[in-house]
Design brief:
mainly alpha, 8 helices, 161 residues
Length: 161
């Protein structure tokens, strides 16, 4: 959902594969999708403060709940049945191909859902007192640092081709 390929983003998200550094924990499609939603709403988070932070958290919660309901779990090891810490487990992921194909199918579904989620307006949090000095969580500062150091947030657009 970005304007052009960006190696820095791919490198940053690489550790999410196999359920966060191959631990079988939260699927990289779940955590990567959550980060993508947050990055794609970076300007709103910075400009609109707390209400936008709550809105993004709501979008992410909806995404995680959707993924869990659709694919019966958000954990990589439960979805794949693969132990990525062993050589045989990694081989089993790729051969004969059913495990990796299942992940590709889930990625396809997740991208469609994320695209739809991004097209929607964020939930309106009327009455929330905005105070950018006290972010709701550390992600605001992380996103700010990413943008300042790399400029990556500039690549996200509302209209997709």
């Amino acid at each position: 959902m970005i304007d052009k390929p960006e190696d820095s983003i791919l490198k940053a998200f690489t550790g999410l594969e196999g359920g966060i550094v191959a631990s079988g924990s939260t699927c990289g499609v779940v955590s990567g999708g959550a980060m993508g939603l947050a990055l794609s709403h970076y300007d709103e988070i910075i400009n609109d403060g707390l209400s936008a932070q709550i809105g993004v958290l709501s979008l992410i919660e909806d995404y995680v709940n959707w993924f869990d309901k659709k694919y019966k779990t958000t954990f990589c090891r439960e979805r794949t049945g693969v132990n990525f810490y062993s050589g045989m487990g990694q081989l089993r992921y790729f051969a004969p191909g059913d495990k990796v194909a299942k992940c590709m199918w889930h990625i396809r579904g997740a991208l469609r859902h994320l695209h739809s989620a991004y097209q929607k307006d964020m939930p309106n949090n009327v009455g929330i007192s905005d105070n950018n000095d006290n972010p709701i969580h550390c992600a605001t500062q992380v996103l700010k640092g990413i943008k300042e150091q790399t400029g990556l947030a500039f690549f996200y657009k509302r209209n997709f081709v």
